[in-house]
Design a protein that fits this description.
By secondary structure, this protein is α+β, with helices and mostly antiparallel strands. The protein folds into 5 domains: 19-229, Jelly Rolls; 241-327, Baseplate protein-like domains (Phage tail protein beta-alpha-beta fold, 3-Layer(bab) Sandwich), CATH 3.55.50; 363-410; 416-540, Up-down Bundle (Methane Monooxygenase Hydroxylase, Chain G, domain 1), CATH 1.20.58.760; 548-701, Methane Monooxygenase Hydroxylase, Chain G, domain 1 (Up-down Bundle), CATH 1.20.58. The protein has 19 helices and 33 strands. The strands form 8 sheets. Strands 1, 4, 7, 9, 14, 15, 16 and 18 form an 8-stranded antiparallel beta sheet that branches. Strands 2-3-8-17-10-11-12-13 form an 8-stranded antiparallel beta sheet, with no helix packed on it. A hairpin with a 2-residue loop joins strand 22 (311-315) and strand 23 (318-322). It is globular, with a radius of gyration of 29 Å. The two termini are 54 Å apart.
């Protein structure tokens, strides 16, 4: 596995493993004079005109960076072309059904000299003998055009809109009796497909050409990953999808960013035909990873192992993997009796410092770094340092990873009283959050193995500071120190030193009134090690969400059009809230089941879902303006419907007399902040959910 395996990009691995009959990655070297085939024995694509092979620029917007899942591609911005024949066996195999695929970018009409023919392919003997996938400059549309034997052109599909950035495209056609069907797939953060059906026949693909008309551009125009399949649809996902935890995971073209370590390891092994045996663990218990780089199979497997900190090993003719979470609190598997002679003599530990590490720096691949240390161990034995590179999804995880590694290599196990202290600490955080009406995701006590933690949704600076300080104060930190901890530092960053006394007073009041709840949650944490937000709320016996309002919209299963409309609706609520100074906890196209239940919303039929925006209440008029923003954005004030969740909420807040003024203010804000709404909408389409902090950053960047 480690001998002779070349490094492959995510797109090349995925396409090659999906049964392509002909495939040209176009990931050749800088001085290449052709584009080699990935299928052994197949001819290369010829290069015509000026073509350079260079890396595809990352997409960066509002703090988000997309690392495209490809190595250097052919830049055809100088009018270069790629073309070549399709081997006869592939032509024969695609006689009744085919899918052609290309990845390309740089199609902004402001830069291109004219229409760009992304891909041209020929199918002699069919109703249409030549086909083109065209990015129309003047119309800003994506078209599929068929040409008959006399050269007559028919526009089969005319999709309104262009993907200006790097994206995947696929066109499928297949025979259905005396008719055929054609479908267009566009894979980026807003996947779409459109269909054409008509009388005629489909023939096999015999040749392909990229940028067939030699269009030029003033910007980089990468082309590659030309592939042909004998399928009625693309055999792999062209766009990101929400996983079992409803977290968006990008597709191959965006390097599978956000994928869990276990999910990535399983996919990689499947692509390589390697049998993998892994015990089941929940999604929340595995680390999410950053963009998958080009790499050899074993290097990529090891990246997953390093991120999750499990154990990868050979198992028969395949691999086995023990996830980190699976190794917690295992039952005794084998008991040996030394007195009975079941252990050979001289079985003694080796006293050395071979594995001692008390200062660890963790660097995120292409990201930042964080260092953790154990002062007591350093004082006793001197510094033992380690530096590791880990492919994580976010810089936010770095300190936890560094601290965990220090714990494993320099800190002894918790004693029972220490375990009780940590359980009480996390229970104080969790109960304070519930008492303040803040959504808690989970509380975690990795019993005997490391750090505990509690995750809650961002509310507003003061509330978040109160929740942060609750753990520190509940553990006696305000009485006997230490004065500087993760909790106190976070609180200072939220409200400043001047805001700390007020936050401490509120935290103290909650801790005094919720002692029984804290004890119950701490006991449950010690027993189970992990509690969900729903379990914590059930133990506390309070679903008091006073002070927070969820603005929602319910829709059927999200088609691309409905997803965009719902994202615009929620973006309107959110931007108006920020404009009016109302703290927003989160905005989501797809609300989580726990959020739906906490908001008291009725269950929807299967295939339907809610979008939502959680906003802290301000005053009746302001809250009504925020509520009406989604309705106004949907033009409900002009075309109806007149009775919606938004309008009902507004009427309850300000009555019929105050309704017109709230509508007028919502209209004015939306008109003034249209750019911010558009950017928030696009962020929601790409990521499904953004936090209040991310929302504020976007709105601030577009005044």
């Amino acid at each position: 596995m480690s001998q002779g395996s070349p490094a492959r990009s995510p797109l090349r691995r995925t396409i090659a493993a999906s049964g392509a009959l002909a495939y040209w990655p176009v990931e050749d070297g800088r001085v290449a004079g052709q584009a080699a085939s990935a299928v052994a024995g197949h001819p290369p694509l010829a290069v015509t005109g000026t073509v350079s092979f260079r890396p595809v620029d990352d997409y960066v917007d509002l703090g988000y960076t997309v690392r495209f899942g490809t190595s250097a591609l052919a830049d055809l911005s100088a009018g270069g072309r790629l073309s070549g024949p399709v081997p006869g066996e592939a032509t024969a195999a695609t006689a009744g059904a085919w899918t052609v695929h290309v990845a390309a970018g740089g199609l902004d009409p402001a830069n291109t000299a004219g229409d760009v023919t992304l891909l041209e392919w020929t199918t002699p003997g069919g109703t249409f003998v030549r086909w083109r996938l065209v990015a129309q400059k003047a119309l800003s549309s994506t078209q599929v055009i068929g040409y008959n034997a006399t050269g007559g052109a028919t526009t089969l599909i005319d999709h309104v809109g262009l993907a200006f950035g790097f994206a995947e495209y696929a066109v499928s056609a297949y025979q259905v009796g005396g008719s055929f069907t054609v479908k267009l797939y566009l894979g980026d953060y807003d996947p779409v497909f459109e269909t054409y059906s008509g009388a005629g026949t489909v023939a096999g693909v015999s040749s392909v050409a990229a940028n067939a008309t030699g269009t030029t551009s003033t910007a980089q125009m990468p082309f590659g990953h030309v592939a042909i399949f004998a399928t009625q649809a693309p055999p792999f996902d062209l766009a990101g999808r929400a996983d079992a935890s409803n977290v968006l995971v990008n597709a191959a073209w965006a390097s599978y960013e956000g994928e869990t370590a276990l999910g990535r390891l399983a996919r990689l092994c499947a692509e390589d035909g390697v049998q993998l045996t892994v015990p089941a663990v929940p999604d929340y218990a595995t680390t999410r990873m950053g963009a998958q780089p080009a790499g050899t199979p074993l290097d990529l497997y090891r990246q997953c192992e390093a991120a999750d900190q499990g154990v990868l090993y050979e198992l028969g003719f395949g691999l086995g993997y023990l996830p980190r979470h699976y190794r917690y609190n295992r039952s005794t598997a084998l008991t040996l009796d030394y007195a009975a002679g079941q252990v050979a003599p001289s079985f003694e530990p080796v006293d050395d410092d071979h594995l001692l590490r008390n200062r660890v720096t963790v660097r995120r691949v292409d990201g930042s770094e964080a260092t953790a240390e154990d002062p007591a161990s350093i004082a006793a034995a001197g510094p033992y340092e380690q530096s590791v590179d880990v492919n994580l999804a976010s810089d936010d995880d770095l300190l936890n990873h560094a601290a965990w590694r220090v714990h494993l290599a320099a800190v002894t196990q918790w004693a029972p009283d220490e375990l009780a202290w940590v359980a009480h600490h996390e229970a104080c955080h969790a109960v304070a959050a519930v008492a303040l009406g803040v959504l808690v995701d989970w509380a975690d006590l990795e019993a005997g193995e490391g750090y505990g933690g509690t995750q809650w949704a961002c509310a507003d600076p003061h509330t978040d500071a109160v929740v942060s300080l609750a753990g520190w104060m509940g553990s006696g930190g305000h009485l006997q120190g230490p004065p500087s901890t993760h909790d106190t530092q976070q609180a200072i960053e939220l409200v400043g030193r001047d805001g700390i006394p007020a936050a401490m007073r509120d935290a103290a009041a909650i801790l005094a009134s919720r002692e029984a709840d804290i004890a119950a949650v701490a006991a449950a944490l010690r027993e189970h090690g992990w509690l969900t937000g729903e379990q914590i709320t059930a133990i506390v016996g309070s679903d008091d969400r006073a002070g927070e309002r969820v603005h929602t919209a319910a829709v059927a299963e999200l088609t691309p059009a409905l997803r965009r409309r719902l994202a615009h609706h929620e973006a309107s609520h959110a931007v108006v809230a920020v404009h009016l100074g109302a703290p927003v906890a989160w905005v989501a196209v797809t609300m989580r089941p726990a959020e739906v239940a906490d908001a008291g919303l009725p269950a929807l039929p299967e295939g339907h879902q809610y979008g939502g925006t959680m906003v802290r209440e301000v005053d009746p008029h302001t809250d009504a303006v925020i509520a009406l923003a989604g309705w106004v954005a949907d033009l409900g004030h002009i075309f109806g419907p007149q009775h919606t969740h938004d309008t009902q909420a507004a009427l309850e807040l300000v009555g019929a007399a105050g309704f017109p003024a709230a509508v007028r203010e919502a209209e004015a804000i939306l008109a003034a902040r249209s750019d911010a709404v558009a950017y928030v909408r696009e962020a929601l389409i790409r990521h499904d959910r953004i936090t209040g902090d991310q929302l504020a950053a976007i709105v601030q960047a577009h005044p």
